[in-house]
């Protein structure tokens, strides 16, 4: 499982305040803690600052880079912010995100190609997000095929079926799981990803739902996720799921995590 740590996101109140006050210590602490917890990438987002987004994103990236060389996932709705972030971050990168929307695709693809990044590909087009499984699946397929035709290697593509809050529609969980499975069957060489916590938005005890979705989605073919790596029970369930699904030979990673104390206090 490829873990992208979600905590350095300015839409989170504590991070917005830390970035606004240039609290480098807090940003560095969260970066190193997510790395220690198992994140392979760190999502970095300064989108809450609107007019100052590029400036604040640059500050965040430079601050994170003082603490860790871990690969980054540059996250912004603005292509110019993505471009600037990729230019200064260095190393292996993921762009978050591209879609089949005409303007978005045309503006983000050159950045992906210039910096040879991975890319999170959202299964939506100019018609917006659909609740129809076949429609979303077809958009995902067209998007994947178009990216590959443009020279983006399959292993650099992270297809996202767009997990949405089940509090808004009780079918959204099943929809996402079905789409992950179908994408896996069609494009086994392409990564399947989701923003895990989207499923629980607006509901109480959100982490319970996030943990349940992770297990179900891994069984359906999810192999990457944007999540909170500091949620110890979530990470424990991830290790257990990898062992149960046969991705952990002789359960060696599970055993190592247990011996390291990672499961302490988790029944």
Give an account of the 3D structure.
It is a single chain. Helices cover 49% and strands 16% of the residues. By secondary structure, the chain is α/β, with parallel strands linked by helices. It has one domain: Dihydropteroate synthase-like (TIM Barrel, Alpha-Beta Barrel), CATH 3.20.20. Strand 7, helix 8 (206-220) and strand 8 (224-227) form a beta-alpha-beta unit. The model has no long low-confidence stretch (mean pLDDT 97).
How many DSSP H or I helices? 10
For the largest beta-sheet, the strand count, sense and barrel status come to: 8 strands, parallel, barrel
Low-confidence stretches: none
Total strand count, please?
Answer: 8
Helix content: 40-55%
CATH architecture: Alpha-Beta Barrel
Largest sheet: spatial strand order: 1-2-3-4-5-6-7-8
Mean pLDDT: 97
In CATH terms, the superfamily is: Dihydropteroate synthase-like
Search tags:
single chain, 267 residues, alpha/beta, TIM Barrel, eight-stranded parallel β-barrel, 16% strand, globular
In short:
This protein has a single domain (2-239), classed as Dihydropteroate synthase-like (TIM Barrel, Alpha-Beta Barrel), CATH 3.20.20.20. Helix content is 49%, strand content 16%.
Outline the secondary-structure elements.
Elements: E1 2-9, H1 13-20, H2 24-37, E2 41-45, H3 53-67, E3 72-75, H4 79-89, E4 93-99, H5 102-115, E5 118-122, H6 133-149, E6 157-160, H7 172-186, E7 191-195, H8 206-220, E8 224-227, H9 232-244, H10 252-260
Parallel strand pairs: 1-2, 1-8, 2-3, 3-4, 4-5, 5-6, 6-7, 7-8
Helix pairs in contact: 2-3, 3-4, 4-5, 6-7, 7-8, 8-9, 9-10
